[in-house]
Write a sequence for this structure.
């Protein structure tokens, strides 16, 4: 057996001071990591294991029964080598994936409006969002958190009133019927019947089947099953309606094109348009006899040809001018008693 000499007191002092310095450095790294992740964290006490709390109280698998304290394994197994910033970030990620539900008795934040047992009154040291504790005492079953902060970027909790309605992906939901806390029907049963219900599950289920709420749920379930069975036929009918709607759009487009063509033809056949065309045609017919006369004077045409051509063109010219005058009179008379053409 080899006996080693005791280290001198100076060595013990040096080793203790070096370990304390290492602990202090590790603690400082944890604080810096937490501040980098969440700038609103405020340090109140620094010598105890942190306890993470949430306000308002929520319902979640990472929370306790009261919905105030986090019971995550990462927080419960916290050591000096743990990264507090990563723990908080993992909690926020979990709340984002599985949104919590507001607790029905969420009234006040325990740290802001009551003095937890074991914690002296605290005055805000440069943190305006932390009011001082009132001096009154409050009984608490949970240990108080030695340090806490306000996390403003928590996901929005789901209200309990909204959580009672189960909404599916297609936007339709089903609201469960209200179930009372007491069942007056049980008071009318005999002791033996109640004993059988307590000991035999079949008897208990038989009693449950007589509840009006359960009957309503069964009826609603049958209706939902029927509606699901009708979905294929509804889909086929919906496709038929879509096909008819597509045909309607095509027919509407063709109708609009024909209406546009009709408007163009109506404008071309209006009284004013006919009058303009008659005026142009009469002017052209008036120039043709003059050209025939010039050709006859120059000797380019025989007298028989001249007479037949001149009389024909002259007749056409007079007819067109007569039609133009009559149309103009009709337009003037119509505009006097009716709207303009």
């Amino acid at each position: 057996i080899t006996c080693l000499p005791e280290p001198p007191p100076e060595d013990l002092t040096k080793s203790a001071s070096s370990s304390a310095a290492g602990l202090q450095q590790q603690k400082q790294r944890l604080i810096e990591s937490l501040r980098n992740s969440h700038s609103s964290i405020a340090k109140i006490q620094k010598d105890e294991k942190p306890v993470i709390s949430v306000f308002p109280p929520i319902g979640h698998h990472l929370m306790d029964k009261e919905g105030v304290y986090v019971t995550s394994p990462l927080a419960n197994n916290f050591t000096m080598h743990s990264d507090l910033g990563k723990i908080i970030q993992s909690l926020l990620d979990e709340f984002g994936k599985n949104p919590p539900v507001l607790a029905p008795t969420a009234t006040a934040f325990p740290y802001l409006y009551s003095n937890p047992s074991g914690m002296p009154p605290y005055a805000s040291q440069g943190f305006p969002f932390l009011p001082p504790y009132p001096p009154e005492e409050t009984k608490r079953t949970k240990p108080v958190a030695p340090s806490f902060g306000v996390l403003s970027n928590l996901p929005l909790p789901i209200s309990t009133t909204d959580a009672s309605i189960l909404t599916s992906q297609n936007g339709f939901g089903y609201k469960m019927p209200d179930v009372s806390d007491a069942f007056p029907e049980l008071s009318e049963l005999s002791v033996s019947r109640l004993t059988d219900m307590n000991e035999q599950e079949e008897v208990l289920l038989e009693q449950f089947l007589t509840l009006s709420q359960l009957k309503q749920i069964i009826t609603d379930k049958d209706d939902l099953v029927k509606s699901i069975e009708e979905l294929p036929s509804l889909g086929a009918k919906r496709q038929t309606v879509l096909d008819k709607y597509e045909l309607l759009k095509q027919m509407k487009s063709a109708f609009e094109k024909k209406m546009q063509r009709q408007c163009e033809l109506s404008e071309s056949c209006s009284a004013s348009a006919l009058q303009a065309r008659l005026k142009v045609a009469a002017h052209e017919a008036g120039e043709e006899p003059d050209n025939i006369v010039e050709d006859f004077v120059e000797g380019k045409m025989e007298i028989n040809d001249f007479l037949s051509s001149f009389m024909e063109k002259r007749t056409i010219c007079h007819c067109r001018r007569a039609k133009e005058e009559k149309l103009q009179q009709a337009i003037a008379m119509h505009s006097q008693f009716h709207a303009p053409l």
Observations:
- Residues 11 and 219 are 82 Å apart (CA to CA).
